[in-house]
Amino acid sequence: MAVISILELRLRDDVLDGAPAALDAILADTRAFDGNEGIEVLHDVADPAHVTVVERWTSVERDDAYRAWRATPEGASGLGDLLAAPPTLWRSEIRSTL
Known about the structure:
InterPro entries: ABM_dom (IPR007138), Dimeric_a/b-barrel (IPR011008). The longest helix is centred in the first third of the chain and has 14 residues, at 19-32. The chain is of the alpha+beta class. The chain has a four-stranded antiparallel sheet. It contains two helices and four strands; from the N terminus they run βαββαβ. It has one domain: 2-Layer Sandwich (Alpha-Beta Plaits). It is globular, with a radius of gyration of 14 Å.
């Protein structure tokens, strides 16, 4: 069953200018990971330090595999260097569409 993972990010003020390019570089590996069906990066129009990453995965197992890979030295992304606070992740299964 497809899964949507939503990652809420609070960026440091001193990295805002370069953050879009840095996020694009980080998310290239996410997009290429087996089971990823797409990513959208939402930039809050009222708060430039608030970014939401919406990821679509084929299954919770593929998302779990991706998160486990990111926790390894090979998968480390450097995302933490951009953040003013720990990210928040929540996931939802897609059970129906209109």
